[in-house]
Amino acid sequence: MAIGTTIGTTHLIAIRADGLNPLAPMAPNSPLTKLYDPFTNDRQSVLTSTYSFVLTEVTGDKQYGYCRRVRSRVKESALPQVYCVVSKLGSLELYNVLLDKLAELHAVSEVAVHGFLSATISLPIPAPGCRVRAKHLNHKTGRLEDVEIERPLDGARLEHVELNKLFQWFTIKQITELFSSVLHERRILISCSHHHLAKLSSCVSSLATLIYPLKWECIYIPILPRQMIEAVTAPTPYLIGAMAEDLPAVQRELNEDTEPLLHFDLDTSTFVRSYGDERTLLPPKSVTMIENELQSLICTLHQDIQADNTAISYVFLNFMYKLLGHYKDHLIEFQGARELDREPYLRATRRYLRPLAERISETQSFGIFAVSIGEAGDYDQFKNFTEEKLANRTQSVFRRTFS
């Protein structure tokens, strides 16, 4: 369902969807409207921009917003327009197809835009690896055309990120330090010019996925609206993306804040502020392993989002397996569910990882993992990865014993 409304200096076409299925029109005074267009006083200086946001509800459920900002087709001084899809499904590639087509039709006419929305918004959500087709009228040729919308195979965990971009934004050393900071649930601020909002939102989203099977459960705002600047003073862990133009206001908020903060500036590729111990959070052996594996990937990445996402995520998944992979031996029955028993798990953790495991076991993300790992669903990929590792280890032992 799409509606048009004017918010600040932007005309918004909002599409509320559960997958591709309509839920309800979005009210102009919805709290979500703060997140649609962060260019508070900027009409046309940014010609087009693609960015995303995530809203975490009190229940822990997330809604994902994917936005495309385009110039008015009417005249230079007119309001820019933002097309925004809000969905309970996080899928960058899936919704980028819609936004690409909307931006193309935006240059044609409003009738063309609404015709395309009518043809696509009622489609069923495709299963991972599957596609759906929609027919819409090409207003140039007067003929019906097919538009294919495909959902990636890898499932929801990597559908809304582009991990290959990490190598464009950070050095390998910086990636490791940011990963370890996210793992330890610290206050993390990433800033970037408003001309590169796609870069900012994608960066914050990518960092959050690296700690899988743990999930970032704290404050999470990929793009911080100007009206919510005070969020940077929260004493709790957060992962926030802020526009460089708002940094003076952010700094004013932080002036009286004595809590430590990790602040990385994407425009200069430097840490502006840090805790000072980022390099020592992981065991040296783990740092070497992660950085060597990332280095070996640089020449093999080929801009295929799904393949690159999988390859890069497996570097961190392999580390998380060493940290958490023995969970299965320490599941206990509690109130009808299977949970991870913390103390036996810690005692069984490899000695060089045990201090890290003890610190991580105090985090909110580990707490959720401990009570949820016995359930089906979100952790299936980690469980499958663990089973493959155990099978490979068993085969290796068998070969050494009997060869």
Describe this structure in a few short sentences.
The chain contains 13 helices and 15 strands. It is an alpha/beta fold.
Q: What is the string of SSEs from the N terminus onward? A: EEEHEEEHHEEHHEHEEHEEHHEEHHHH
Strand content: 15-25%
Nearest-integer average pLDDT: 78
Q: How many strand units? A: 15
Which consecutive residue ranges, at least 5 long each, have pLDDT under 50? Answer: 1-12, 16-28, 394-403
Could you characterize the architecture of this molecule?
- The structure is a single chain.
- The chain has 403 residues and is of the alpha/beta class.
- The protein is built from 13 helices and 15 strands.
- It has helices at 33-36, 92-106, 110-120, 166-169, 172-183, 197-209, 247-254, 284-297, 305-324, 342-348, 354-360, 364-372, 380-402, and strands at 2-7, 10-18, 21-22, 49-56, 62-70, 81-87, 131-137, 144-150, 187-192, 219-221, 238-243, 262-265, 270-273, 331-334, 337-340.
- The strands form 4 sheets. Strands 1, 2, 3, 4, 5 and 6 form a 6-stranded mixed sheet that branches. Strands 10-11-9-12-13 form a 5-stranded mixed sheet, covered by helices on one side.
- It is globular and about 70 Å long.
